Amino acid sequence: MSPVRTCSRTACKAPAVFTLTYVYRDSTAVLGPLATYAEPHCYDLCAEHSERLTAPMGWELVRLPVEEETEPSADDLEALADAVREAARPAPGSPHEPVGQGTEVGRRGHLRVLRSEPAGTQPAQD
């Protein structure tokens, strides 16, 4: 199964960019942005077929505005990098606990059980 949805028109293999739905009660066809999920009774259309689309006689065709996808700017990427750096910094005034060695208590396959020793004490020698 392809991760890109294709146009619902027969023999068209172009990627879908719009979804066509119908509201039968109002005799309205609605062409909008590509739906997140493929739904039954909806048709995914490529750009070419969506431009040539017409509604049946007596029906209204509503074309919803589609937001243009913009690439992240350099400012966006710098702001993201700064946020990551800030989150990685230790909080001011936070105590740094020394990391103890721990004592190996048991072993099973590739797993180990370690008993942590209180800070400042020597591990017991077995």
Automatic annotation (TrEMBL):
Region of interest (Disordered), ranges: 86-126
Pfam families: DUF3499
Entry protein name: DUF3499 domain-containing protein
